[in-house]
Design goal:
This protein is α/β, with parallel strands linked by helices. It has a single domain, classed as 3-Layer(aba) Sandwich (Rossmann fold), CATH 3.40.50. It has helices spanning 14-30, 47-50, 52-75, 90-101, 115-121, 124-131; strands spanning 5-9, 33-40, 81-87, 105-109, 136-139. Strand 1 (5-9), helix 1 (14-30) and strand 2 form a beta-alpha-beta unit. The chain starts with a strand and ends with a strand.
Length: 140
Amino acid sequence: MRIKKILLAVDGSEEAQRAANYAADLAKIMDAQILVLHCYESVAAGVDQVYPLLMEEIANAAQKTVAPYLVQLEQAGLRKVSSRVAEGAAGALIAAVALEEGCDLIVIGSRGRTQLVGLLLGSVAQRVLHYATCPVLVIR
């Protein structure tokens, strides 16, 4: 099977940085595209109506999380790179975006910034494995 498009899920963690390195290496070997995705949680229900600027700040922070990965991939010589930020629960959303975008592979770090929550509720990577319809590469 040929990998044409890789979804790289990022959150600013060291594990996501390592996942980006793997995704870059795979993309070079396979001449694949990379879609860098960062998911962010929305604020409590109703708050986005009261504080629209807060939602804008959250979206801007998400874009800033993605930026270093785009620089890293460009410096690695990759030209077929795009990015997306999305609001929602990361596990299911990553899998849904991969399906929607026609990705052949999801690359994700084993533990991100929510390590304590991951220990209690299960990691985002575990949820992606549960929901994904394509292969998932989990990087330690």
